[in-house]
Design brief:
Order of helices and strands: HHHHHHHHHHHHHH
Mean pLDDT: 86
Helix content: over 70%
Number of domains: 1
CATH topology: Na+/H+ antiporter like fold
Number of strands: 0
Structural class: mainly alpha
Largest sheet: none
Distance between the termini: 16 Å
CATH class: Mainly Alpha
Shape: globular
CATH architecture: Up-down Bundle
Radius of gyration: 19 Å
Amino acid sequence: MQALLDVILPVFLVIGFGYLAVWRGWFSQAGVDGLMKFTQHFAIPCLLFMAIAKLDLSQSFDWRLLVSFYTGALVGFLLGLFGARYIFGRDWEDAVAIGFCCLFSNSVLLGLPLTERAYGPDALEANFAIIAFHSPFAYGIGITVMEFVRAQGHTGAGLLPRVLKAMFSNALILGIVAGFLVNLSGVTLPAVLNDGLELMVRAALPAALFGLGGVLVSYRQDGDLRIVLYICLIALVVHPAITRGLGMAFSLPVEGTRSAVLTAAMAPGINSYIFASMYGRAMRVAATTVLVATALSILTVWVWLGQLP
């Protein structure tokens, strides 16, 4: 119960403030759109840039951490893809969008603040190692499979450019790539630039959590509830369970296990809806899933925190 009060509820209270402010008309939907554009295109890319630029790459990128998390993510995608097709009878393009919902955990807006509150700022190195590959991995798989399905298996030489163009038009990926370039080159940022970026970083997560609450107001429970609950089961239970099991099998250190399992246990993020919108497929299911899974994760994250050392 203490973890629920001290770790989880403060984060969800900020989301709740954003939801209440927009629902009651105290903060406009246009304001939320602007706030989310600021966080998604500027503040969070700065956060990821600074985090990756300062990571000790030799210590942070433990293969056991990445294999544990991303095996669970890939299994989740496949369960979502084939479950949507063969259990719920959706067409293949809908099935890919639904699989993406099972693949893309809300690793930044929820994973970072919850891990920090539970285990402190020093615990975030493993989170950033996961996040460094998260968007490229998820979008790479989602876009590749969707383009393959849309082309009915005949993609030709144009597939790779389409995938790369979609990935590298994403500001989060650009921030991660820039961070790697600075880290690997050994360049030291000028103090004035470093201080300016730090100011942006401080604004990123609180503003994004408030904005997330505002965005959820526009989502309605308007999808097939059975498939929404199926996605929630995969995202909130199956993915972290696989990650936890593999972490134990690989003797992943405690710090990495905490970050990997908590990140895996996050609800599908807004990127799930963005991906569905890119292709105009399963948008109602994606929107409903973000809303329902975010609410359910208050309890499921509490349970997972109780299972972690």
